Amino acid sequence: MRLDLRTAARMLQFDERADRVVPPTGFTARLTLFSAFAMSFLVVFALALSLAAGRVADRWGNELAQSSTLRISAPAGEVATQTEAALRVLRTTPGVVDARALTLDEQRALLSPWFGADLPIDDLPLPQLIDITETDGGYDAAGLRLRLAAEAPAAVLDDHARWRRPLIDAAARLRLLGWASILLIATATAAMVTLAANAALAANAQVIAVLRLVGAKDTYIASAFVRRFALRALTGAAFGTLTGIVALMIVPSGSDSAGVLTDLSIQGIGWVWVLLIPPLSGLVAFVATRYAAGRVLEDLA
Amino acid sequence: MIELENVAYSYGGGELLTDMTLNVAPGSFHFLTGPSGSGKTTFLKLCYGALQATAGHVRLFDRDVRGLSRDDVAILRRKIGVVHQDCQFLDHLPVTENVALPLTVSGQDPGGADANLKELLAWVGLTGRADALPPELSGGERQRAALARAVIMSPDVILADEPTGNIDWEMSQRLLTLLVELNRMGKTIMIATHDLGLIRAAKAQVQTRVLRISNRRLQMAGADL
C-alpha cells in the first residue's frame, strides 16, 4: 500500500458511509483525544519557552556585539587626563564606532536604582565610565587592552563578554531544549496514537475480514481508521492548544528585558507556530495511524 | 473464469491441498463436497484470492492471482460474491447497509441503487427486516442477507461455503431456490457443502457438477450423487 499525495488526500476526504463501517471505539477514542490534548498543552509551553529563550539570546547577543564599557579608576586629579587619553586611543581603534564619556547625570541615573536619586555623586570617588559603541565586526579587545595599558593605565576595559556570554549560551541552550522537547512530545504523541490505532485495528479484525470479503481495498480500510484518528488528534490538539494559550496568559508578565520567566509569551511570528500545533498533531496522528494500519493489514492478509 | 492449474496449498509445514486442476466455466453450477477438515473452505478461499496457492497457478478472470497486488485482488473479488457459513456481517450496521456494503467499499452510492436494494431484499424475503441489526436475525435470515450482499454487485460468480450449515431444511431449500434462480440468470455457482440432500435437490433442478476433496486432492464425485 503506497502513500503518495493523492492517496493521502483521498484518505482524508470526508466519507460518511466509509466512516460508518468502523464501529465506534470508546476507549481508543478517549485515549487519542486526551493524548493529543495533553501533548498540545505541553507543546504550547515548550514553544513559549523556546521562543522566549530565543528572544533573550538574540537581545543579549545583539547588546554584547554592539557595546562595551571602559572604566577609568584613577586619583581625582588624573581622571580627566586618563579619560582624554583613553578616548584618543578609542577613536583611533578599528571597530569602534563611537566612544563617549558618561556625564555625571548619566552616572547618577545608573546608580539611582541602588542608592536613590538624591545621591551626592560629586562627593564620591567614582570611576569615570566611557560608553563604547562597536561596529558589527567589533574590535580587537586584546590589542585595545595593550594600547590602553600603555597610554591610559587606569583604564579597565569591560567588553561584557565575561558575564553576558554564559547567559547567552544558557538562553540558546534553553531554546534548543524547548525544540527538543517539542520533538520528543511529537514522538510520544505518535507512539501513543500508534498504540491506540493498533488496539483499534486489532479489535476490529473481524470488521477488516468482512470488508476484504466484499472487495474493499487496503487503502479504503486504512482510510476509515486514519480519518478517525487524525480527526480525534486534531480535535484534542485544538482544545489543548487553546487551554495552553489561556494558561500562558495567566503567567505574570514583566518587561521584555527581564528574561525568560517574565517574558513567557507568544509574540509575532510565534503565533504561526502555535496555530500550526493542531494541524501538525493531526498530521502526526495521520502518519502514525497509516503506519499502524499498514502493518496490521499486512499481518492480517 | 476460475482456473486452477496443479494448485497446492501448504500451511504450517503440512500440505492441505495438492495437485488440484479445475476450470470453472461461465454459467456452471458446482458442488464441492468432502468430510469436515478436508479443505473445502481453503479451496474456496483460493478461488476468490483470499489465499495464495503455494504451488501451481490460480487464474481469476484470466489473471494469475500470484502476480496481483492485494488491491488488484480486491477489485477482482468484486466480481465474485461470497456467502460464508458464519455470514460475517458488520454487527453495528443494519441489514440494508450490510447488504449494500460491496457498493459502499467500491465507491458507488448505495442511495443511487436504492430501488435495486429494496428489490433485492424483497427477493430474499427480508423487506421487513431491513433495519434490523445482524445479531437480531435468525440463521436463515442471516444466510439470505449474506446472499443478497453477495449478489448486489451483480457478480459473475457466487461462491458459498456451507450456506445451509446453520439453517433448517425448509430454509435451505428456499436458499437453494434462490441460488438456482441466479444460475438460470447466467451466474456461475459453486457451493461447498456436505449436505447431500441439498446436492440431490439441486440436481433435480439444474445441471450440476459435483467435486469431492479426498486425500488432499480434487476428484469428480461418484454417480451416487
TrEMBL record, chain B:
Chain ranges of the ABC transporter domain: 2-221
SMART domains: AAA
InterPro entries with a match to the protein in the record: AAA+_ATPase (IPR003593), ABC_transporter-like_ATP-bd (IPR003439), ABC_transporter-like_CS (IPR017871), ABC_transpr_LolD-like (IPR015854), P-loop_NTPase (IPR027417)
Superkingdom as given in the UniProt entry: Bacteria
Organism field: Marivita cryptomonadis
Record protein name field: ATP-binding cassette domain-containing protein
Ribonucleoprotein listed as a keyword: no
Cellular component terms (Gene Ontology): plasma membrane
Keywords: ATP-binding, Nucleotide-binding
PANTHER family: CELL DIVISION ATP-BINDING PROTEIN FTSE (PTHR24220:SF470), IMPORT ATP-BINDING PROTEIN (PTHR24220)
MF terms in GO: ATP binding; ATP hydrolysis activity; transmembrane transporter activity
